[in-house]
Amino acid sequence: MKKLRPRAGRGGAARLTPVPDRPVLELVPPGSGARPFLLLADVHLGLGSDERSGGIPPEGLARAMALDLVELLEERHAQGVVLLGDVKHPIVGTPSRLRRVVFDFFATLLGAGASVELVFGNHDVGIERYLPREVTVHGAEGLVRHGIGMFHGHRWPSAPVLEAARLVTGHLHPGFRFAPTADAPSAKERCWVRVAYAHPPPGPRPAGRRPPIRARELIVLPAFNPIAGTESLNRERPARGRSFLFARFLAGRDARAYLLDGTDLGPILTASNSAPRGAGPGTVPRAR
Fold first, then answer.
1. What is the rounded distance in angstroms from the CA atom of residue 137 to the CA atom of residue 286?
2. 3-state SS string over the chain?
3. Domain ranges (residues) in the chain
4. For the whole model, what pTM was predicted?
């Protein structure tokens, strides 16, 4: 089967490598012996918990995800973690019980000797007051690191980000729905999405226009939280809330989906190959 392969930029640029079977991308800086960074998105701390109804304790899954990242940091000999938005799940406010969970999640990563950076997502309003001071926070317009533009995906990133050779984002929670089986009745799995761009014509943009996308490709990260909802991109276009990223960066493009093990699932639904909302493709793979 065709696999999602790492790709390096021209002239010794940084390399982006999906970590096998994990929703994490490894950014390897140029240069011999350079230690990588781990890129991930959509941790959604507090998802499934509700202080009023006594739902899932928020600290349980948060601790498991933090320790999973610490294990990956050691395994990949990584120097740092960049979280591309939506660290917490509540959009409005941070419940009192979740504040310590957020702090402890970041403190666990820092305690492993990693640098930790956060790019704001739409769920992260007010989170900075509950972070350890060692965490570096970037606005929703994103950042550029070693020639890679990174942003969350809920709003238009800055011109320097869009001018990077390659882009990485989150927010979409991409998934792929298979034909259900007895063992997997929902048959929905997280996936990567890789989008190819044609080079735009050179020249300045007209006054007042958004900066154009000058990257040659974009990679959409799967949601890191294993219980976060996913969009079945082979079945229907994303619902409201994630439609901005889809419409502005994926629709009408050469966009393909890949399982976490790298298996190429083929093109996702875009303007050029779309079916009516809710309709499946002619053939749907069975769950693995």
1. 42
2. CCECCCEECCCCCCEEEECCCCCCEEEECCCCCCCCEEEEECCCECCCCCCCCCCCCHHHHHHHHHHHHHHHHHHHCCCEEEECCCCECCCCCCCHHHHHHHHHHHHHHHHCCCEEEEECCCCCCCHHHHCCCCCEEECCCCEEECCEEECCCCCCCCHHHHCCCEEEECCCCEEEECECCCCCCCCEEEEEEEEECCCCCCCCCCCCCCCCCCCCEEEECCECCCCCCCEECCCCCCCCCCHHHHHHHHCCCEEEEEECCCEEEEECCCCCCCCCCCCCCCCCCECC
3. 15-200+210-267
4. 0.85
Joined together, the tokens standing for residue 132 give: 């350890």
Question: How many other β-carbons are positioned within 10 Å of the β-carbon of residue 264?
Answer: 15
Question: What phi, psi does 59 have (nearest 5°)?
Answer: -75, -25
* pLDDT for the residue 244: 85
Segments of the chain scoring below 50 in pLDDT: 1-3, 6, 8-11, 53, 271-288
Q: What is the pLDDT of residue 157?
A: 94
Region of 85 (left: φ > 0; alpha: ψ -120 to 50; beta: rest) is left
The CATH architecture one would assign to domain 15-200+210-267 is 4-Layer Sandwich (3.60)
pLDDT of residue 138: 96
Q: Which residue has the tokens 């305690």?
A: 111
pLDDT value of position 32: 78
